[in-house]
Amino acid sequence: MSRLLLTRITRLVVHNLLQMLQEFKEFIMKGNVLELAVAVIIAGAFGAIVASFTNDVLMPPIGQAMGGVDFNELKYALSPDVVGADGTVTEGAAIRYGKFIQTIIDFLIIAFVVFMIVRTYNKMTAEPEVEEAPAGPSETDLLAEIRDLLAKK
Fold first, then answer.
1. Are 50 and 111 spatial neighbours (Cβ–Cβ below 8 Å)?
2. What is the pLDDT at residue 143?
3. CA–CA separation, 113 and 106 (whole Å)
4. CA 85: distance to chain centroid?
5. Which of the listed residues 48, 81, 102, 132 has the most CB atoms within 10 Å of its CB?
């Protein structure tokens, strides 16, 4: 009897697993999920481009204009660096506010680009404003006009 029960349970589990895999396949093949996956991949690549632009193109001239400052090296040391017996240097704890400034600039660039994309999309998909027809006489005005015309005859 236990063997029959085990067989039925196994069939039920396999059936449920296959049904779940089929539902997952249907879900993943929907257009929105695929579009989202592509968007995430493109966003990751775009983030890397922006980070490179900030670190390699934008920040060096700004640092040079500020007297040769390297933003990657800007930090507030909490503990000193430690030099080991073999000459290896272990950095001490520090608040690296220079890297934080670069990350903020990265964010601002990405946020501005996303804003411009959304703004352009909204302009392209906006429905044109329909001018309202000028308000004509009300029903009461029309009835009064008809009454006056009939009174003249």
1. no
2. 87
3. 11
4. 48
5. 102
Tokens at 34, concatenated: 């695929």
CA angle 121, 50, 70 (to 5 degrees): 150
Q: Residue for token digits 């950095």?
A: 91
3-state SS track over 82-109: EECCCCCEECCCEECHHHHHHHHHHHHH
Task: List the beta bridge partners of residue 89.
Answer: 83
Structure tokens at 18: 């296959």
Q: How far apart are CA 97 and CA 84, in angstroms?
A: 26
φ, ψ for residue 87 (rounded to 5)?
A: 95, 0
pLDDT (tens digit, 9 = 90+) per residue, 22-58?
888 877 777 677 778 888 898 889 889 988 888 888 8
Task: Determine the average pLDDT of the residues in 146-151.
Answer: 88
92 close to 78: Cβ distance less than 8 angstroms: yes
Distance in angstroms (rounded) separating the CA atoms of residues 109 and 63: 18
- Global confidence as pTM: 0.55
pLDDT of residue 134: 75
Angle formed by the axes of helices 97-125 and 31-52, to 10°? Answer: 130
